[in-house]
Amino acid sequence: MTRAGVAVASVGVEAGGVTLPGDVAVPRGARGLVVFAHGSGSSRFSRRNRYVAELLNRERLATLLFDLLTAAEHEVDQVTREHRFDIELLTGRLVGTIDWLDRQPELAGLALGLFGASTGAAAALGAAALRPERVRAVVSRGGRPDLAGERLEGVRAPTLLVVGGLDTQVIALNREAAARLGAAHGVEIVPGATHLFEEPGALESVARLAGAWFVKHLED
Confidence class of residue 219 from pLDDT cuts 50, 70 and 90? Predict the structure, then answer.
């Protein structure tokens, strides 16, 4: 299927011994690929991440939105919340996804960036540390990079941490994590935004910041 010059397809991502459903969108003349790592019980249907992905597509960046959990795991997690904070599981799935992408001829040649939200940000940073030769840039939205633990020091990809100005506790956690990163990094505060960036214009600011970061570092 094609929409406004963007080829869109459903895929089955093989990672960590399971197949995870996803949606890949590749604009004509794509200059990079951004993989989204959802967190805190979210999925590829996240309204916020889909909005950011569509704006990235306009910047000629391909996107992959996929579920880090299987349907059965997601069902359990909705009750117990045990998987959304299993950073090792989420990181392993994301690393497996990066390796899967390298086996896809139409995607393997694209410079790779990771976009993580909430606990997905920790998974993105962990995967960047484990695949430093492949991941070229990372962006976190309202993330918990601190949960990446000791892997923060191993991140080599330029990293942007975006936090809402009213999300004071998460701002502190992001600044502490930023000081431990082993890569060039920045912390951007979106004024007046809460954790979910639901305020008018807040999510647009996230998408604009992410787009500029990925374009800069994926084209270097």
Answer: confident
Residue of 195, 196, 193, 180 lying closest to 148 (CA atoms)? 180
Alpha carbon dihedral 186, 144, 210, 107, in 10-degree steps, equals 120
Could you give the residue ranges of the DSSP H alpha helices within the chain? Answer: 47-58, 71-80, 87-101, 119-130, 168-178, 202-218
Q: What is the CATH number of the domain that holds 111?
A: 3.40.50.1820
Query: pLDDT tier at 101 (50, 70, 90 boundaries)?
Result: very high
Report CA torsion sign: 17, 38, 25, 9.
positive
Query: 114 lies in which domain range?
Result: 2-218
d(C-alpha 216, C-alpha 43), whole Å: 27
**How many angstroms separate the CA atoms of 212 and 137, rounded?**
11
CB within 8 A of 47, min separation 6: which ones? none
What's the pLDDT at 156?
Answer: 97
**Whole-Å CA distances, 134 to 98, 194, 202:** 8, 32, 30
